[in-house]
Amino acid sequence: MSLTALYLLVALGAGLVAMFLRLPPLVGFLAAGFGLHAAGVGELEGLHTLADLGVTLLLFGIGLKLDVRSLLRPDVWLSTFAHLGFSVIVGVGLLAGIAPLGFALVADADLGEMALIAFVLSFSSTVFAIKVLDERHDNNTLYGRIAIGVLIMQDIVAVAFLTISKGHWPSPWVFALVLLLPGAWLAHRMWDRITSTELTALFGLAMALVPGYWLFETVGLKGDLGALVIGILLGSHAKAPALSKVLFSTKELLLIAFFLSIGLTGVPSLEDFALAAVLQILLPLQAAAYIVIFAFMGLRYRTATLASFTLTNYSEFGLIVIVIASATGMASAEWQTVLAVATALSFLVAAVFNAYAARFINLLNRALPERRSARLQEADRPINLDGAKALVVGMGRVGRTTYEELCQTQGYQVLGIEHDSLRADSLKAEGFAVVEADATDQDFWERVKKGAGMELVVLTMPFHGDNLLAMDLLRKLGFTGTVAAIALRPEERDELKKRGAHAVLNLYASAGSDLAEKAIRVNLERRATS
Predict the structure, then answer these.
(1) If DSSP codes are grouped into helix, strand and coil, which group holds residue 486?
(2) Greater pLDDT, 90 or 51
């Protein structure tokens, strides 16, 4: 128990330090793992099992929210393979170039081993990228869907490599996995009858780990891939979003074990650190390649950059690949420690990239010629405001009600803005005038500013930080119309007013006063008729 307490305290302390330094907490967890190993602290029993569970639930959660059709998009599969080829070529060139600098591990490597290391470094971290998207609440934005699609394609490539490198093909029973399709139908019917939150969570865990992880491992495939597949098969159920939310906290806690376990891979030498640092040179080159490829695929500079920076890091799956490769003699086992350090450092680099993404996007927009609408994908083209006088930004429950009140009762011509493509499509089918767009995108607000007759903007996004950012962009661009927003706490209301909001509604306070007013009115009516 004392060892568990030590791990918890060190992880918490390192996570807090990372947060104070404006870095993702996971960077602190990685540092905690290296620190514990360097201090000679024994490994916590079951840590790797918890780490595996975290990654499994992560992929299961991705599957619950994944539209399989997105994998068939050229900007997903073609971008994946084009970038992989570029990364291998550039990676081999870098390793060959630094071979004379005194790194024994590189000097002893032949061309095949260099190509393998470059291949490993071409993968992006699913864990890090999903964490970035979760923190921004951007999983369902255009760039978020593209990034997730590329990550899954990379995982499929990694699974194929691992299958081949193990020296044996999957069991013939792999073809029996087609029975998962009717099995998913039965699972849906069972799920329909589950009403308890506890049973919902248990159902999700059981599906991810039994027909998902265990079954795929049994037939010779990667268990994480099984969890992803089961998540996809269950993702069409109406309760899938609720299950994803129920499992969210559990997944987050288990992923702490994952990042700690990376740091516990070994105590790197100074030469290991130096080589891992040199390997970071590949990251800006890979980021630039992603931007060029995505732009060629018809994405705006902003979309291409955000997707690129989300993917600019090294992968935990790359560590799994190098472990298998070293076990089969394809690469030296010393690469495991070097690549673990390189992966940890890449998360630091990626944190900086993502922190300055907005500035880099503005630089690209100023330095490069404006993209013609005809050459952009339809989902990334400028928005036609169609003479709307009011914008409702965020079409959740509050936004939908606001839209209906403005349109039906007040007679405004209203346009709804929603960054979640699934929700936007659903609302369009119901007859709402809605466009898919990101209200934290400066380009979007510049188009709003140009919209003739725009009088009112109502910010109903569920996350206070998004409303603040939208408020700042409106003020920066000189919007002169009326801005209203929602808040959950008094301090949020005050902050929005300081940023320039003309009206702020405290949802909880408003709900309480409305309920009290209605209760009193009904009570008086009942007393009058009794």
Answers:
(1) strand
(2) 90
